[in-house]
Amino acid sequence: MNWDARLLNETLADTWPKRVQALLTQQQQTWPQLRAATEALAQVEYKDFTIKSSSVRAQFNPSRIVSTGAKVDAASIQARPCFLCAENLPTEERALAFGGDFVVLCNPFPVLPKHLVISARAHTPQAIDAQFGGLLELTRALGAEFFTLYNGPKCGASAPDHLHFQAAAATHLPIWRELEGWPVKGSQVAENVEAVTLPGYRINLLSVVSGEATALQAWFQQALAKLAAVTESREEPLLNLLARFCDGKWQVLLLPRQRHRPACYDAAGEAQLTVSPAAIDLGGILVVPRAEHFTRLRAGILAQVYAEVTLCDERFAHWLRALITDG
Question: Helices 313-326 and 213-230 meet at what angle, rounded to 10?
Fold first, then answer.
């Protein structure tokens, strides 16, 4: 079944949030897997932790072992069919067209309410360099109710061979609430682009705000190149993105990293913790798919996980100096 056969009528509603709700309703009525997953999400167990005065909600979600445990080495990817290509989706799965190049799908393994996958129609590798403008367009279309995200090919994307974004209801991700009141340190990094850091936060991040897409895109290209230089990356630097569009402006969170998975992921015995942090996890919902690992969680363990996968203080400061001096 190709994309044309899977597309729902685009006149379902006059705005994108309404179209998304119509898609979610239709899919929950006709796709048993999604209906069961949505019901299971309402019953998941949480544990709340405080790390450096910020909130982390650990979520015991067994269905997410599909993503958390995904093998993303080249040989494994080559050996399996791509689960984001139209011909490999479940028979019941339907989509909304977003422009000519993307489709909006319901995530069959949700972490948050209204969890979506926005997939490229073509099978093309996960890379943000030429697609950041598309992420901004998507974020604006979905509106303030949603946030969007990008997981780099070595930063939690379980399909690094197929370009995709995600989106979900913004009110459920702790980082958006914390940004409203956290003390910040900021500066103008380019014309019509403001950036702030969050001193003392549990991870190093850069929050960028702008009402002009062209200016934001141009600045992002420079920031990405400078991050690659600081981290000595020959390919796309390790990076996750979170984004919202509110009151006529984009807010984009750049979450630079230094490794894909923490050491505990491959540890043996009691030291093992199957967590593979991506953008949602960095935003404060840490998914744990194994019950025995969920019971062993402690704040110190989670603090170590975040410290290992995100960019260290020294390199983060180096990146900031490059942006402010040269930007």
Answer: 130
